[in-house]
Amino acid sequence: MSGRLEGRVALITGGASGIGLAIAERYLAEGARLLLADANGEKLSACDKALGERVAGCPGDVRVEAEVEAMVEACVDRFGRLDLAVNSAGLGAYAPIVDQTEDQWDTVLDVCLKGVFLSIKHEARAMRAVGAGGVIINIASLNAFQPGEGMSAYCAAKAGVEMLTRVASLELAGAAIRVCGIAPGLVDTPLTDPLTQLPQIRDAYLENIPLGRSGRPDDVASAALYLASDEASWVTGTTLSVDGGSRNRRYPEFMKIFGALEAQTTSATKKKS
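Above: the chain sequence. Below: its structure as tokens.
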């Protein structure tokens, strides 16, 4: 089956790399027209040129309501409507609670949770204006359900996204707008590369994935295509886990791993001196 999104217009935040870009490529292949929004103007410009005339780019920061509103307006101005939205802009940070700064906390919550709230708000307004319904997909995380040491801000934000998805699905059902989420586990993207380059961290993740491999952006894109398509017309208010079964085990014990790495570094330094 192909052309499942023929004639539809989608807006994807965080669309210039990683999961967002993989979803954009899949939607494009299925016939959609796209507005990619991203804070990284350089990557956005490269995507805009590479993906062709059915794709437009709009730089913007999802933490700023005026910029989110401008993204949605740019999509409607360019393509005349908005049918689908994927909110995938996000970031993370590692810091034990006792060491976490207020700025770190605010940055993660603002991008990962406030950004999704602002996006839903303005995407839904544009969809209601057309009156033909729509689909909003929020990228949550395995950490919406599974706690991770040193990841309090990220876990709290993604748990918030999961609940926000449920609330929005209730409020928008009357306008025939479905709101769903996707909760990826470990996916190999530029965002996760710095962490998973450490063998100890990667091994700990893989040990806790029953299917035995990390995810690929295409794995998440496949789920996002299903949720956006008519095949999921009776699906709303739920967050689909795409994690190789990781939710059934446990999250890597980061504090123990980083503590062991620090001890090794300290020991090696003492030997050299």
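The first helix runs from residue 18 to 29.
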